[in-house]
Each structure stands twice: as C-alpha cells, then as structure tokens.
Amino acid sequence: MREVVIVEAVRTPVGKRKGGLSTWHPADLSAVVLTALAERAGIDPGVVDDVVWGCVSQVGDQSSNIGRYAVLAAGWPESIPGTTVNRACGSSQQALDFAAQAVMSGQQDVVVAGGVEVMSRVPLGAARASGMPYGPKVLERYDGFSFNQGISAEKIAQKWGFSRTRLDEFAALSHERAAAAQDSGALSARLVRMDTLTADEGVRRGTTVDILAGLKPAFTADGVIHAGNSSQISDGAAALLVTTPEKARELGLTPLVRYRAGVVTGADPVLMLTGPIPATEMVLRKAGVALADVEVFEVNEAFAPVPLAWLAETGADPDLLNPLGGAIALGHPLGASGAVLMTRMIQHMRDNGIRYGLQTMCEGGGTANATLVELAD
C-alpha cells in the first residue's frame, strides 16, 4: 500500500458557547478552513478528490451532509464531492483515517479531512430531541443505563479511585498549559484568525483547585465531575490535507508528518470513555512503535478522569500528555475536535523535533480512535 502524508493543517480558534464564533453558520465556518487550507498549501482546489467532514449533531444547521455544503460554501468546484462522518467525538479523527485509507489504497490521491461543530447553534443533544437512539434491545442489554457520558465519567473516577481534588488538579493544569502555549505562540502557527475571534476563547487564566472547588457536581449530588473538570461546549472547525509523498512532490508540497497507523475499537459502553486505553495499545502494535518512543500524546479531555485513567493504565510520561492543554481549557467542538487536536499536535511536533505523536479520542457509545503520525524528514 502507498505511503500517506499530511501536507497542510489549519484550524479556526475554538470559540466558547455564545462566543466569537457563535454567529457563524457551520457551512460558512467550514468554508473558512477549506479556503485557508488551499491558500496555505498553494493548490488549486480542483485537485481534491473528496472532502471527508466530521460532524456529530447532524440536525438543523448541520444537517443534510454538511461536508458537501462546506465545499460549496468555499466556492470550490462543484465537481468536488463531500461526505459527513459521525463517530461521535472522534468524527474528524475518523475522517482523517478514512482519507488516509482512500489514499493508501490508491482509490484517491488528494483528500481533505476535517470537521466542524457550532454547538452554540446546534446544542449538544439536539439530535436526540425527537427520539431515543438506543432502542429497547440495547437498553435491555445494559439494564436500562442512560448512556450519559457524565455518569460514565463518574464511574471511571470511582473505578480508578480519583478524588475530586485530583481531577481538579488536572483541570487546573490544562488551563495553565493552555495559557502558557498561547503566550509562547505555540498555538498560533496553524490558526486562521477570524474577524470575530483571534485566539482560543475558553482558557481561564489563574484557574486553581480552590476556585474549582466552588463548582457544584453536574451529574450526581455527591459526584466529582463538574463543569470545571469537563470539556467545554465550543464552536470550531479544522482541516487537513492528505496525499502521497509522490503527489506532494508533483504539487510542490512539503509533508509535515507521515500517517503511520490508525485504529478504532469498541469498549464497555457503560464506562464508555475507556476506549483510548486499548486503542493506544492497538495503534502502537499496528505501527510497530513502542510507547517509550512516542514523545507527545493527545488524549482528548472529555472529562478529567479519561486521560488520568489512560495514564494509569499505559504508564506513559505525564509530562508528554496534552502539553498545550486540552479540551478542559481549550474546548471541545465535537465534530471538529479530532482535526483540531491533530493540527495542534503536528505543529508541536514540528516546533520541537518530535518524531512520533499519538492521538486518541474517547467517544459516545464506547468507541475510540487512535492515530500515530511520524515527523516527516
């Protein structure tokens, strides 16, 4: 099979709920990153074979194949198709995997992967407003569990013995690292600055455990999960340009990273958010790379117990985990988050000469993606 490289990656700033991106239609916000991707790469959009676009709440403004309407909103040729992927929080990471698979197989040569979510306009849970997606047989199989991710996060905290203080320490560190990354410019290189927003909006400087201690539990009266140690409801979009080294040379493009391996797995849908643990083992085995050789890990901070349980089980170096902060501080625009994380990680690898980077996402329903990339020469 053919080698796959990522040659360009861009993202919008991540906006907070009702913040600087809240007035943008998701198709138009998607068009911003598609346009920037082509301009920065210096390519004619007509060379793109397909656009694979992640989006979770595919109703209202995000319905009817938002991937296709993103292409049209960008003014790209009508001949370029687009499709929309829903792998819950890992939707745009799965979009990258699908794009890589298409290029690797030789079916396509240049594919754009990415995603969008404007949660200010299409609220979390909007797709379930008119019905229950699980069905009676699923509920019967799992004893009527509500499939509430917050409750699952509580169960993870209990199983691994994480106190509220430990979770809040992790949350405060996420804000501290994100603020430092903003100040150093580490988050700027691949950012498309918008008229309405020029930087990630969710970072709360000066967040401390004492401040977080004042927040009420969100899911159970005596619980440890609250708004401050959970990912933020956010708006954003991101895009990645995927091709082969040979096609990159033909187009005058310089690879940023090589796509080494991608996997997806299922796990217990009641604990729900533990999938990154086996997914990490799977992707490392598939790539033939040791955990000790990876120098940066992006484990999505859906809730603080998720990366902490991952750390406990993998034994990875905590200093290499989410070094620029994560979704607790920077936000989690569901369908865009996989591409946002990959964009951040690629730049971090380029800035610091890091050979291997691993990204993994927990997902609703108990699935998880993991992707390993290698710095290009």
From TrEMBL:
Species for this entry: Prauserella endophytica
Record-annotated Thiolase N-terminal domain positions: 4-244
Domain Thiolase C-terminal stretches: 254-374
Record keywords: Acyltransferase, Transferase
Record-linked SUPFAM superfamilies: Thiolase-like (SSF53901)
Designated name of the protein: Thiolase family protein
Source lineage: Bacteria, Bacillati, Actinomycetota, Actinomycetes, Pseudonocardiales
Family: Belongs to the thiolase-like superfamily. Thiolase family.
